[in-house]
Amino acid sequence: MQALVIYAHPDPSSFNAAMRDVTTSTLGEMGYSVQVSDLYAMGFKPTIDRDDFATTFDARHFNVTREQRHALEHRGLRDDIQRELDALLAADLVVFHFPLWWFSVPAILKGWFDRVLVSGAVYGRQYVFERGKLAGKRAMLAVTTGGPEAAFGPTAINGDMLDILMPIHRGILGFCGMTVLPPFVGYFVPYVGDGGREKLLAAYASHLRAVEQLAPLPMPRLADHAETLAPLLRTKAE
Amino acid sequence: MQALVIYAHPDPSSFNAAMRDVTTSTLGEMGYSVQVSDLYAMGFKPTIDRDDFATTFDARHFNVTREQRHALEHRGLRDDIQRELDALLAADLVVFHFPLWWFSVPAILKGWFDRVLVSGAVYGRQYVFERGKLAGKRAMLAVTTGGPEAAFGPTAINGDMLDILMPIHRGILGFCGMTVLPPFVGYFVPYVGDGGREKLLAAYASHLRAVEQLAPLPMPRLADHAETLAPLLRTKAE
Q1: Cross-chain CB nearest to A166 (options B11, B148, B163)
Q2: Chain A nearest-CA residue for B224
């Protein structure tokens, strides 16, 4: 079994780094072969632009989706994208480590989604959710917050964590067909002390050891929306 | 009245660019003085790292929030951040133009949020929502999608657009105290033809002309959560 770890934190001494080390050691003990993409250490380029493509589909209008599909067919994806895409396609399990910045992922990780999740390779207009091209793979978010747990929840000031993560769980991972496991959230990490952080790491290791038993988050099914969407999916871009 | 337009699309001939031009001309006619930050044209750096700061609070551990607060006090923010922050603080209205990529903003715009929304300048631990430091300013998202409108909604495959945008509306703009106006969403723009796009631009101009009358989105209030959060807000980071 192959695991891919996408790690997005600028500080090598961060609590996120300690969680990532729990991931590599725990999954290693469970028999996984683990590969880590340390986006900051790699100097990963977050911004999608013309330089991402050795090929050109349309020199006048830069439509990302169409350039991606064209590049994919003609081996025109830039090396750093192709390497990450190959690692993703080879993985059975993908774990994303990041601090929650502005209720979402850091820009460098958003750039990984924007650039590596290439149209035609991981999804297509009629290949989303249960028909997504990453079907069969599992994905899990491992998140930290500076805010306290009491600030999150259905009636709390920041709203529920699953609502905050919905655009990632459903809009990215589930959309591509992945089986999305419940996230692990380490709350309030700058404030809980060394003892609190040790407890969080232990709780995280337990969560991770159950990765093959965890009940996935519910996702919509394309089949349930076929009637509404079918005529639209036949439309051609200009 | 000052308006700041944050524009995040890689193609100068895109429909997003046409919408941005509607913003500058319409707000100009309404008497606003309009400034545009064209993030791609500026080569805006999306990744937050040590280079963002001329000052150093802690050379061993890189905690973004604490480095931001320290840099803010000692004029240590990198020029490109300081310029955007000054423009934001001077604005009465901020309009964000972007294509919805992976149910969120492009990485370059996420980087603008990560880097420009400096702790201490736009929010503080006890200065969020109605006490946020951007209180009194209005913000609006102007979004385009490749997906059809029928794919969005409470029972649709992608979920409701307001739920998708919630982490931005509530987690970023509302969190800093801004009055968040209903977004304008141009759906399915690569597929609707020139006539369809003209109609969208006209509808967008109408939306924008009502910008001073639009009823804002509801936001939580810190005052309603004071009892739960007060003890936690007194906690000190280590």
Answers
A1: B163
A2: A157
